[in-house]
């Protein structure tokens, strides 16, 4: 099948094939044909659009925008609360049964119960993703990064994706896998923001005025801000996290994102406290962070060398984790083609995690410390006290249980809260090795998983180990040895080294700590760890996006592109449409070519590929042509998202003639053929386009260039072809 947004090829890929074997999309990670680009240069000032907009009140559109944002602030935290509370109740039942079996000395039944329950839940979660909606797999960060930067991720913004992602995430957390609820939930907020324009009954769709790609992208970003603020408890961090992932934005959306995140965070906290019946002075965090202890927030200028050291360790550790994960995910996508093999992979990973966890708990429990800390009172809704076969006291529990039987959010909060000497060194070392392996195996499976939360835990654990090492060095100041502070700072370093996140992660971690004291330490650590890890390759998020074939353009073009012109990679043959065209010809051209846009020119009625120079009148999109020949399927003739594999249905007579000049874009974006690829890349990334018309000195069209062409050109530079 031809590539959707490539015009008839005498293009980059044909140049690449000279003296080379035919490349595979899987082995070379080329942009996949079924993945298209969004077009933020739409709607444009066509005659039809101007007529439609004259009938729409701008005041009404403004009110509808705020109603949409209000719905996002209600639905997103409500969905999170439903999942969080349900997970807590079901987890309580599972852990209570497990603890009863262990207390009665039934070790083998306890192990079998833990393994079979987790395996069943994981397989059910994977089945929903594999057989119903593949968009629900993974951490969701590659999909978020792609969609907010102009990639039309297949079936991302659909009601089925929302349902499958929510259920699969719930089942994954219930299976005690290391992904956690918080990070996979970020994509749920993006999905809801992107599909909200579809809300309605039959022909009554009040928000359909926001069907444009740019509006869907903005509301998806608002959903990301709301979900980030909800799960991390950081409204400002949610704003910066959303802004960091946008390719371009306007100043007015900053306030919208901030308001959305603040209200969503407020609603989630208040509702959760009301549900739990919390009183004044009681504290039970809903998100993964707790305010750090007062004795752990002191920082000093003499500690700056330690911050650099932590950043170096985090950068190297993050680069290693990224390398191992990149190898695993490439193996999975290359060899696990069959759906049943993917399900078997989930079964193997879940079995390894469940059995190793429960067996190590049984083996090390008696040698582990017993905790007697206020954590049990602050988090009284956890069931840590169920696992105290050899501990005494109302608030006592085995330290191993805080690491093996809690969900990742509670593990993170525990590591950021408990005092020193609560964990024995061998427990932390064993858990670090275990969880490092677990996170590598789980991330990349075809089910919801996590990247940020597992690496926060990994960093917090080796931070506590570092604290124990420094304790034995008498010449080190006591302020260097605070386990909570080191766990917090090392978690920042590890996460930054893996994700290469900058400002968004910095704001989230500073805001979550509850103090401004950590601004300088966190910034130093993030800068050092990012710089060091980037020396070894790109972030794991971009690597996964590359493996999945997303059409991702880098914000900084490679230096060699300065010496290459658009003329080197443009598609010289263009499929042009005449101004007056029949339904039959539209159907024929849509079935023959899968392009996303077609130039309009006086071609004498011919619809075959033409070479320039050509004088064109404008550009019309594929989605517009589809709406013209099937108006009953869509509320308007303006915008619909259609994949290339859907059959083309026609509801108008085949002889009907359309004047495309009413619908075309009279002023499409153009670029001179002598312009450098660096300039072309800047235009594509800044404006989030999917097609540019290449013109000569006389402003005659001589070819077309797409986002896909630029990515293939980058591959060609790396292969030494150009």
Automatic annotation (TrEMBL):
Membrane topology: Multi-pass membrane protein
InterPro entries linked to this entry: CBS_dom, CBS_dom_sf, Cl-channel/antiporter, Cl-channel_core, ClC
Main location: membrane
Signal peptide (from-to): none
Location relative to the cell: Membrane
Recorded GO MF terms: chloride channel activity
Transmembrane portions of the chain: 66-87, 107-133, 153-173, 185-201, 221-241, 253-275, 306-328, 340-364, 435-465, 486-510, 516-533
SUPFAM superfamilies registered for this protein in UniProt: CBS-domain pair, Clc chloride channel
SMART domains referenced in this protein's UniProt entry, alphabetically: CBS (SM00116)
Domain CBS span(s) in chain numbering: 664-721
GO cellular component terms, semicolon-separated: lysosomal membrane
Pfam families (alphabetical): CBS, Voltage_CLC
Keywords, comma-separated and alphabetical: CBS domain, Chloride, Ion transport, Membrane, Repeat, Transmembrane, Transmembrane helix, Transport
Family designation: Belongs to the chloride channel (TC 2.A.49) family.
Protein name: Chloride channel protein
Species for this entry: Cimex lectularius (Bed bug)
Native organism taxonomy: Eukaryota, Metazoa, Ecdysozoa, Arthropoda, Hexapoda
């Amino acid at each position: 099948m031809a590539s959707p947004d490539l015009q008839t090829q005498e293009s980059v890929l044909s140049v690449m094939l000279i003296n080379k074997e035919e490349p595979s999309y899987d082995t070379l990670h080329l942009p996949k044909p079924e993945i298209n680009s969004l077009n933020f240069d739409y709607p444009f000032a066509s005659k039809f659009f101007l007529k439609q907009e004259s009938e729409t009140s701008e005041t009404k559109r403004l009110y509808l925008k705020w109603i949409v944002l209000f719905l996002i602030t209600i639905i997103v935290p409500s969905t999170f609360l439903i999942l969080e509370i349900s997970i807590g109740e079901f987890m309580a039942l599972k852990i209570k049964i497990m603890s009863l079996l262990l207390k009665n000395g039934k070790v083998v039944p306890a192990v079998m119960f833990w393994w079979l329950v987790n395996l069943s839940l994981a397989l059910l979660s994977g089945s929903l993703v594999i057989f119903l909606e593949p968009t629900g797999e993974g951490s969701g960060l590659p999909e978020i990064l792609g969609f907010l930067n102009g990639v039309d991720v297949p079936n991302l913004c659909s009601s089925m994706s929302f349902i499958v992602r929510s259920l699969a995430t719930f089942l994954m957390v219930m299976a005690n896998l290391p992904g956690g609820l918080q990070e996979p939930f970020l994509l749920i907020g993006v999905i809801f923001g992107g599909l909200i324009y579809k809300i309605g009954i039959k022909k009554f769709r009040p928000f359909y005025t926001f069907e444009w790609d740019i509006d869907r992208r903005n509301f998806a970003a608002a959903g990301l801000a709301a979900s980030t603020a909800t799960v991390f408890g950081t409204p400002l961090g949610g704003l910066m996290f959303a802004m960091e992932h946008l390719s371009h934005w306007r100043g007015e959306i900053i306030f919208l994102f901030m308001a959305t995140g603040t209200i969503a965070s407020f609603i989630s906290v208040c509702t959760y406290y009301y549900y739990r019946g919390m009183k004044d002075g009681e504290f039970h965090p809903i998100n993964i962070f707790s305010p750090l202890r007062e004795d752990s927030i002191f920082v000093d200028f003499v500690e700056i060398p330690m911050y650099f050291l932590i950043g170096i360790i985090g950068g190297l550790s993050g680069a290693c984790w990224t390398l191992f994960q990149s190898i695993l995910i490439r193996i999975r996508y290359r060899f696990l083609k069959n759906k049943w093999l993917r399900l078997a992979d989930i079964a193997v990973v879940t079995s390894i995690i469940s059995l190793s966890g429960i067996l190590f708990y049984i083996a090390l429990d008696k040698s582990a410390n017993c905790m007697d800390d206020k954590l049990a009172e602050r988090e009284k809704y956890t069931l840590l006290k169920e696992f105290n076969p050899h501990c005494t006291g109302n608030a006592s529990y085995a330290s191993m249980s805080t690491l093996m039987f809690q969900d990742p959010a509670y593990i993170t909060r525990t590591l950021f809260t408990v005092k020193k000497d609560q964990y024995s060194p061998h427990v932390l070392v064993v858990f670090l090795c275990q969880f490092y392996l677990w996170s590598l195996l789980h991330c990349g499976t075809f089910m919801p998983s996590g990247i940020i939360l597992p690496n926060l835990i990994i960093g917090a654990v080796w931070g506590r180990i570092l604290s124990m090492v420094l304790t034995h060095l008498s010449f080190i100041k006591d302020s260097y040895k605070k386990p909570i502070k080191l766990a917090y700072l090392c978690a920042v370093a590890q996460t930054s080294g893996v994700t290469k996140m900058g400002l968004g992660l910095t704001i989230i971690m500073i805001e979550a700590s509850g103090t401004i004291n950590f601004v300088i330490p966190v910034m130093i650590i993030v800068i050092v760890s990012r710089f060091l890890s980037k020396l070894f390759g790109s972030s794991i998020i971009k690597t996964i996006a590359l493996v999945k074939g997303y059409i991702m353009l880098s914000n900084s073009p490679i230096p060699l592109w300065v010496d290459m012109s658009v003329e080197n990679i443009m598609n010289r043959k263009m499929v042009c449409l005449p101004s007056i065209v029949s339904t039959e010809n539209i159907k024929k051209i849509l079935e023959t070519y899968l392009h996303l846009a077609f130039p309009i020119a006086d071609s004498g009625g011919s619809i075959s590929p033409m070479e320039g120079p050509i004088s064109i009148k404008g550009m019309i999109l594929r989605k517009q042509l589809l709406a013209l020949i099937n108006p009953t399927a869509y509320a308007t003739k303006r915008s619909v998202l259609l994949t290339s594999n859907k059959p083309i249905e026609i509801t108008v007579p085949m002889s009907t003639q359309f004047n495309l000049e009413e619908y075309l874009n009279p002023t499409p974006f153009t670029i001179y053929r002598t312009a450098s690829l660096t300039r072309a890349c800047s235009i594509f990334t800044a404006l989030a386009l999917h097609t540019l018309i290449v013109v000569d000195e006389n402003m005659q069209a001589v070819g077309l260039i797409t986002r896909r062409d630029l990515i293939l050109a980058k591959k060609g530079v790396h292969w030494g072809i150009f």
